[in-house]
Amino acid sequence: MTRVARPSRIPDPISALIDDRLTGARCAGKSPLFDAELDDETAEERSERLTWARGQCTRCPVRGACREAVREQEHPHGVWGGVVHGLPGRPGREAA
Ligand code: SF4
Q1: How confident is the model at residue 6 (pLDDT cuts 50, 70, 90)?
Q2: pTM tops 0.90
Q3: How far away, in angstroms, is 50 Cα from ligand 1 center?
């Protein structure tokens, strides 16, 4: 994501995660559910979770901006714009 200037009271690592283009994102506040993998998750649970997450992306009002933002990432990880990044041995997949 693009770094933007933030008030000094927000710690820098958190500030770096804020992107004004993604205001209104359906994943806001649900970030673990959009991770590529979670600890102690079965393959079936992961598949169901990622299918749900990708479905959220199809209805997200900032999907276009999200896809633009992910292109700016050197090593994207997790679900971005309906595509899963960072699963070992698997390329990104488009949302249905
Ligand atoms: S398209 Fe998906 S990953 Fe991107 S901001 Fe929207 S809900 Fe989040």
Answers
A1: very low
A2: no
A3: 12
